[in-house]
Write a structure and sequence with these properties.
About 55% of the residues lie in helices and about 5% in strands. The chain is built from 10 helices and 3 strands, in the order βββαααααααααα. A hairpin with a 2-residue loop joins strand 2 and strand 3 (about 20-25). By secondary structure, the protein is mainly alpha-helical. The chain has a 3-stranded antiparallel beta sheet with strand order 1-2-3. The two termini are about 40 Å apart.
């Protein structure tokens, strides 16, 4: 899966390719690699008796089994193994803020977006500024209660940073249906790309984003009356509810 750089005529534009797929940026390649790990963690695996790696990883012994299986896949690529373990590690309580969402792939809907950070998150910054920093509290317990409240609000609010996914849906991660949709999209995008000519990387990225938005709004024959974006949202909601149920047991 090592990416290469391939010139795109007639303007000698450098285009990133991974396997047979074309990407407009190296960030998109990284998102795709992270997506593969996130989807594997959320997909039932025969080696685990049909359970998902994240389910197995909820105990120390299970997390060790997931680590051993990751080593079979990635060999000595320690960064990839660490990414598997971070994604599959024991779940936090459902209402706890998960700052790691800024480094999650965001899936199909975010595949061509730039990476963001907490500094880019206007909602979180505003909540902290208005609800915590601008107030005084009689005791630490009261302050923690307010923090808990704004964490929950942040988790449940759709964000433009994540193409209107909520942070908790970004954290929940993709399942096998979204994986199939992503591959279908990348195949379609690559076929379209081969007929295009771009003068700049910026133009290539802009047009790729337009192509993605058109794809996610197309009605699906395999999902009657539903668009790709809705299918992604529905699967992530199911995944989130499964993970919340495990934590609450």
């Amino acid at each position: 899966m090592r990416p290469g750089l391939v010139p795109h005529p007639p303007y000698d534009l450098q285009v990133c390719e991974i396997r047979q797929y074309a990407f407009p940026t190296t960030d998109a390649i990284e998102r795709f690699e992270r997506f593969g790990i996130e989807q594997w963690v959320n997909t039932p695996q025969p080696v685990f008796g049909g359970r998902c790696p994240w389910e197995v990883a909820q105990s120390p012994a299970g997390l060790w089994r997931v680590e051993e299986e990751a080593k079979e896949w990635f060999g000595d690529q320690k960064e990839k193994i660490a990414m598997v373990l971070a994604t599959a590690s024991p779940l936090p309580r459902p209402d706890k803020r998960r700052a790691e969402v800024y480094r999650r792939s965001g899936g199909l809907l975010n595949i061509f977006l730039d990476w963001v950070s907490e500094e880019d998150d206007e909602l979180w910054q505003r909540l902290v500024r208005e609800r915590l920093e601008a107030r005084s509290f009689p005791d630490q317990a009261t302050r923690l209660a307010v923090l808990h409240e704004i964490e929950r609000r942040w988790l449940e609010t759709p964000s433009e940073l994540f193409s209107n996914l909520t942070p908790e849906l970004v954290w929940a991660g993709p399942g096998p249906v979204e994986g199939k949709l992503l591959i279908e999209f990348l195949e379609s995008h690559t076929a379209w790309w081969e007929d295009q000519s771009f003068e700049t990387r910026g133009e290539a990225l802009k047009e790729s984003l337009f192509f993605l938005r058109r794809f996610q709004l197309q009605p699906r024959n395999d999902f009657p009356q539903r668009m790709a974006g809705e299918v992604v949202m529905a699967e992530r909601r199911r995944m989130l509810e499964r993970k919340k149920a495990v934590v609450m047991d």
